[in-house]
Design a protein that fits this description.
Largest sheet of chain A: 8 strands, mixed
Order of helices and strands of chain A: HEHEEEEEHEEEHEHE
Strand order of the largest sheet of chain A: 4-5-3-6-7-8-9-11
CATH topology of chain A: Rossmann fold
Helix content of chain B: under 10%
CATH architecture of chain B: Beta Barrel
Number of helices of chain A: 5
Shape of chain A: globular
Number of domains of chain B: 1
Number of domains of chain A: 1
Structural class of chain B: mainly beta
Radius of gyration of chain B: 26 Å
Oligomer: heterodimer
Strand content of chain A: 15-25%
Shape of chain B: globular
CATH superfamily of chain A: Response regulator
Number of strands of chain A: 11
Distance between the termini of chain B: 33 Å
Number of helices of chain B: 9
CATH class of chain B: Mainly Beta
């Protein structure tokens, strides 16, 4: 029991420190118009935005959801989960996190290939060739290696590089307004 | 402007509390949500912030590294940082009693293991008293740990003194990734109760903050031979915060702090002063075994960091922290205050050179309350440590050969200047294969205990006529105690033969000099005080092998094996038996671990973890004949997620036996055993 009262003394000290810590949570001025964003939050939003500019072949619509699949290490954290409250063409978005490319199936309409898959990028993209899955990635040269949309970082901003040829082969139609905002590239010959 | 905010905050304390209570708890996903309705053009014109510092992936590191991820921690069935470290191959973790652990890398484990550098968010947490870690004091809300980087082998060239056999970096998540409320509560047999709460929010201007509270109450361990309560139950309170934000898009700041208070119970041996008349009832041994020691441990720390991205190829970092610890035990009371300033600059002066250099200063003040049993001499002191380091990573051939050369230079008050260079070579013949080799020198600078102390080790009863009075024997600090030195040779091979399989092999050969030994100060007498000295040398060699395999997307298997052999040599020591065998015998020669992580359904996980730790012939200087048999531990965890943000789990630990010993501490400590245990846990994320 004596130890308890001793604990009490320290506890009060601890509580004071806690209050100090709480001070830091005071909301400061309201955030100014969104000027700066963390990279992966923005990329998560961009993935969602892209769905407005892409048309998938009709026969691809199996199941009652729109699948956004992440292959490899998930750098988005919880940022992607916010998409699950949205719909694409009336279908609720479902996020799936996949470890290996064997697990990619028709429930994925979008496949984001993580940087961690770099050593296997070639074989992964080869295995997806012609399938109506929009491949997105942010590793260097993703579009040239046969990916469809690559997120690139220019000076502080994010841009797109699109491999139109690859999308065409898979039967995906990319709308003109998106193409106007992007750099078009072709698959490099190896 | 920042100053003004500070003033404003202080005045608004009651308002703040009200805000916290009534603030809608749905901020977590709000910011991404808002973007979803923003036109694409606007999103593309938005400036993005991310740290310019090059993120090195594991395959690019020329060292034996293992990362314990958040997911690993969550699925480990353990609830404390020391137990989580068992996940890392090649790390020796042994529980001495409910609140003490012996933890080491590549051998030299004991209650006062001292060759590991442990950091939490850049703050060094080993105690200057003996250069080891009071593991009971190192905790946080495990959910907010982003990862634990475990580096086996010397990391001294960059990290500095004490990074002799390994570095453990515990890294918490930035506040931007812990928005929202999180609540966890657990109850069980050994883990009697645990509760944790965190709340994080966007505080505007791209700044985020969180605070947490955690309480744990742990049961006593098993007291051999009868299984009585070993008197080592403990409870602890902990609270902390972290805030991250930006002054400008290029300037990132972090401010964080913790405060904790623990009640650590232990049963100890108390030696009584034969000179004191009040001790007469305890004659002739003057020893009271099993004294209940209600030890306490508390402390607080505050850390600030500023990172500036100067350009795409240049990055500055300035970090400052203050750390206060108090520990009160029957043997001695101690207070430490540490101030640490650290500056780093990372740059690419030429396209093929990645250069990093830094300067550091640390001031440590301590104050001890000496007892008959334990004395630190002098009772209080202040010491300064100055350091500088430079490392250049040179790309010898594009994407295939890299040379990493660097050294750290330190000046400490005990041994003066120390140089700790390292040379590493990395070859990546293709994107899936890495081969690396390294040779490095590291030192373990003297601790306070080794330089100035007087600890009672035993009392020899009077035996008239030979011994007219009882003799108190001590272990003594030595003013000339020097740094322990290591030259380490390492080789590593990492390969990812298939998308779902990766292998990691590390080999090492270590040569130690001037290792800590105990020398009799009157070798001609049958019993005498002993003094710390540096008259031991050792070689160690070993390997660590790790395999990570996903047979299916829902099933992961991770296995590891480590082998270690240590041989000691006398370097003038006159007390061979005592000194040598502890170093050789206190770490297991073989360790195995096999984990299976299964996602049976989207909402159901089954995790099985089996590990085996080899036998230890001896673990304490003062207990030469006590050995620890090998043991195998089976751990299970079943988790059910009825909703995405809700998890209920049931975990069982050490299921194969009702109790087993893992390690025996020095003779003032009661021998205890680890029991089979189970606990249920609820996690709720809002």
């Amino acid at each position: 029991m004596s130890s308890f009262s001793l604990g009490g003394k320290y506890l009060r000290k601890g509580m004071r420190r806690l209050l100090l810590a709480l001070l830091l949570l005071l909301p400061m001025e309201p955030p100014p118009a969104m000027a700066v964003s963390s990279e992966y939050k923005l990329k998560a939003a961009l993935i969602y935005k892209l769905t407005r500019f892409v048309e998938w072949p009709r026969e691809n619509r199996t199941g009652g959801s729109f699948g956004i699949c992440i292959l490899g290490r998930d750098d988005f954290g919880s940022a992607l989960d916010a998409l699950e409250s949205r719909k694409v063409d009336g279908l609720p978005i479902r996020i799936r996190r996949l470890v290996q490319s064997d697990a990619v199936d028709s429930s994925c309409q979008i496949l984001f290939v993580s940087e961690s898959k770099r050593p296997f990028l070639h074989s992964i993209l080869a295995s997806l060739k012609g399938r109506p899955i929009l491949t997105i990635g942010d590793l260097d040269g993703f579009a040239e290696k046969g990916g469809m949309i690559e997120f690139v970082r220019g000076r502080q901003r994010i841009g797109f590089r699109i491999n139109l040829q690859q999308a065409d082969r898979a039967g995906l139609k990319i709308a003109a307004p998106l193409l106007e905002l992007s750099t078009i590239v072709e698959t490099e010959r190896t | 402007m920042q100053n003004r905010m500070w003033l404003g905050r202080r005045r608004n304390l009651p308002l703040l509390c009200a805000t916290l209570v009534f603030m809608p708890l749905s901020q977590a996903k709000e910011s991404v949500d808002a973007y979803l309705d923003t036109p694409l053009e606007d999103l593309l014109s938005m400036a993005v912030t991310s740290v310019a510092k090059k993120k090195q992936s594991l395959s690019e590191v020329a060292a034996a590294t293992f990362i314990i991820t958040r997911e690993d921690i969550r699925r480990s069935s353990t609830t404390s940082i020391p137990e989580v470290l068992r996940l890392a191959p090649g790390i020796q973790v042994a529980r001495i009693d409910a609140n003490k652990w012996a933890i080491s890398s590549r051998g030299f484990n004991n209650q006062f293991a001292n060759k590991l550098l442990v950091m939490i968010d850049g703050r060094t947490v080993y105690t200057p008293s003996y250069s080891g870690v009071y593991w009971d004091a190192q905790d946080t809300l495990l959910e907010d740990v982003e990862r634990i980087e475990v580096i086996r082998g010397p990391g001294a060239a960059v990290w500095g003194a004490n990074a002799v056999n390994g570095v453990i970096n515990i890294i918490t998540r930035p506040a931007s990734r812990t928005e929202g409320a999180y609540f966890t509560v657990a109850a069980g047999s050994e883990e009697k109760s645990m509760a944790g709460f965190r709340y994080g929010a966007d505080i505007g201007d791209e700044a985020f903050a969180r605070f947490y509270l955690k309480y744990t109450d742990r049961d006593a361990s098993w007291l051999p031979p009868s299984g009585a309560d070993a008197g080592d139950a403990w409870r602890s309170w902990r609270a902390g915060f972290r805030a991250d934000g930006r002054f400008t898009p290029q300037d990132l700041w972090t401010l964080q702090g913790d405060s904790y208070d623990s009640q650590l119970n232990q049963l100890v041996v108390q030696w009584m002063d034969p000179q004191d008349l009040a001790s007469a009832p305890y004659a002739p041994y003057y020893m009271i075994p099993g004294v209940e020691d209600d030890a306490t441990s508390s402390g607080w720390n505050l850390l600030g960091r500023w990172e500036r991205t100067v350009s795409e190829t240049s990055n500055l970092q300035l970090q400052l922290y203050y750390d206060h610890t108090e520990r009160s035990e029957l043997i001695i009371d101690q207070v430490h205050d540490t101030l640490d300033i650290d500056f780093q600059h990372q740059l690419r002066p030429l396209p093929t050179h990645d250069l990093i250099w830094g300067l550091g200063y640390r001031r440590i003040s301590d104050d001890f309350s000496n007892t008959f049993q334990g004395k630190m001499l002098p009772q209080s002191s202040t010491r300064d440590l100055f350091s500088a380091f430079i490392q250049d990573e040179i790309e010898l051939a594009p994407q295939s050969w890299r040379l990493i050369i660097g050294s750290r230079f330190e000046h400490n008050d005990y041994t003066g200047s120390e140089i700790q260079p390292s040379l590493r070579l990395l070859w990546t013949p293709d994107a899936r294969t890495t081969l690396w080799g390294a040779v490095s020198r590291a030192v373990r600078t003297p601790s306070r205990l080794e330089r100035g102390s007087r600890m009672v080790s035993m009392i020899v009863p009077a035996m008239p006529p030979f011994l007219p009075e009882p003799v108190v024997l001590h272990s003594l600090g030595n003013e000339d105690f020097d740094s322990e030195k290591l030259v380490a040779w390492e080789l590593g091979y990492r390969v990812q033969p298939r998308e779902n399989l990766s292998l990691d092999l590390a080999l090492f050969y270590n040569e130690y000099d001037d290792l800590q030994s105990f020398e009799s100060i009157r070798p001609t007498l049958p019993v005498s005080d002993v003094m710390f000295d540096n008259k031991l040398a050792a070689n160690s060699q070993g390997l660590e092998l790790m395999a990570d395999w996903w047979p299916q997307d829902w099933w992961r298997l991770q296995g590891s094996y480590s082998y270690l052999q240590v041989d000691t040599f006398l370097a003038g020591s006159q007390d061979p038996e005592d000194n040598n065998s502890l170093v050789e015998d206190s770490s297991p020669e073989h360790q195995f671990s096999l984990r299976s992580l299964m996602n049976l359904r989207d909402d159901l996980q089954l995790d099985i973890w089996l590990y085996r730790v080899g036998a230890l012939k001896r673990t304490a200087y003062s207990r030469p004949h006590m050995s620890i048999p090998a043991y195998t531990s089976l751990n299970l965890r079943l988790a059910w997620m009825p909703a995405r943000n809700l998890e209920l789990s049931l975990a069982g630990r050490n299921l194969l036996d009702s109790h087993h010993p893992e390690f025996v501490g020095e003779n003032f400590l009661t021998v205890t055993e680890v029991e089979r245990s189970w606990h249920v846990q609820l996690r709720w994320d809002y």
